[in-house]
Write a structure and sequence with these properties.
By secondary structure, the protein is an alpha+beta fold. It contains 7 helices and 15 strands. Strands 4-3-5-6-7-8-9-10 form an 8-stranded mixed beta sheet, with helices on both faces. Strands 12-11-13-15-14 form a 5-stranded mixed beta sheet, with helices on both faces. The protein has a two-stranded antiparallel ribbon with strand order 1-2. The longest helix is centred in the first third of the chain and has 26 residues. It starts with 6 loop residues before the first helix and ends with a helix.
Length: 264
């Protein structure tokens, strides 16, 4: 990595900064969560944004810039920074699950990831109302609230579980294949957002399918799932990158099963 710090030192520092920024963001989130007078705007893509989204992203950007002024930043509310030539790109979704936040149920989180030369190398996923913070650094394993986590060691059909998130386009274009896949699992759930990735990385469910996401939704979670021993790609099997719009995440076995079934 082209930086004065050694790679391990830089990623360690980046993780510390991301975790600290996520924790500081909790005060803003707690202030506005379930507020009776929360003002909501609707963006051009028909998704909501609140003052909480904006203030959390401002805080995280300030924290990153204070420690890594030469790094690029790409955030949900304020877009790309001017440092587009940097090898380092931070990816921020200040409140992933704003619709849940606005409707006052706790399926939302703060997502912070770091990409180096196009590869995702660090991720933090913080869900303050759930009391869950997951994180991972490339080559260092995945953790949930400080405890090492791993995907399920084996696929057990009678207790298997698949979870879907945003699947509108998959339903519209590939409903039959999705139906075939759902029937291969004992339990079908729709945990959505950060939560089913935390469950997958902790070995509690077996496969996650989403067809309508963007990189800011899943960058940090991609690192966490990988470092927990999972496999995560788009639903065609392509690597996760800045243009990714779908996700298939599971163990070696369930990911292969999902990939085959969805693309038959």
């Amino acid at each position: 990595m082209n930086n004065s710090k050694k790679p391990d030192e830089l990623l360690k520092k980046a993780l510390e900064v991301a975790k600290a920024a996520a924790k500081k963001s909790e005060k803003i989130i707690e202030k506005y969560y379930q507020a009776s007078n929360l003002e909501t705007e609707v963006k051009g893509d028909e998704t909501p944004v609140t003052i909480a989204d904006k203030r959390v992203e401002q805080l995280i950007r300030a924290e990153i810039t204070a420690h890594f002024p030469d790094h690029g930043i790409f955030g949900e509310e304020y877009g790309r920074s001017d440092n587009e030539d940097s090898d380092f790109l931070w990816l921020i979704d200040p409140i992933d699950g704003t619709k849940s936040f606005v409707r006052q149920y706790p399926f939302f989180s703060t997502q912070i990831a770091l990409m180096y030369q196009g590869e995702l190398v660090m991720g933090v996923s913080n869900a303050p109302i759930f009391g869950e913070m997951a994180w991972a650094v490339k080559g260092k394993g995945a953790f949930l609230n400080g405890i090492s986590i791993a995907v399920a060691a084996k696929y057990v059909a009678h207790s298997s579980c698949i979870s879907t998130g945003n699947i509108q386009s998959l339903v519209n274009n590939n409903w039959q294949s999705l139906g075939h896949l759902l029937k291969k699992f004992s339990k079908i759930r729709g945990y959505g957002d950060f939560y089913h990735y935390h469950l997958l990385a902790s070995g509690k469910i077996d496969l996650v399918v989403e067809s309508d996401v963007n990189i800011l939704d899943i960058a940090a979670l991609t690192v966490i799932v990988r470092e927990a021993g999972g496999v995560i790609t788009d639903i065609q099997g392509k690597p996760v990158g800045l243009k990714t719009t779908s996700i298939l995440a599971g163990t070696d076995t369930t990911h292969a099963l999902g990939l085959k079934t969805l693309n038959e």
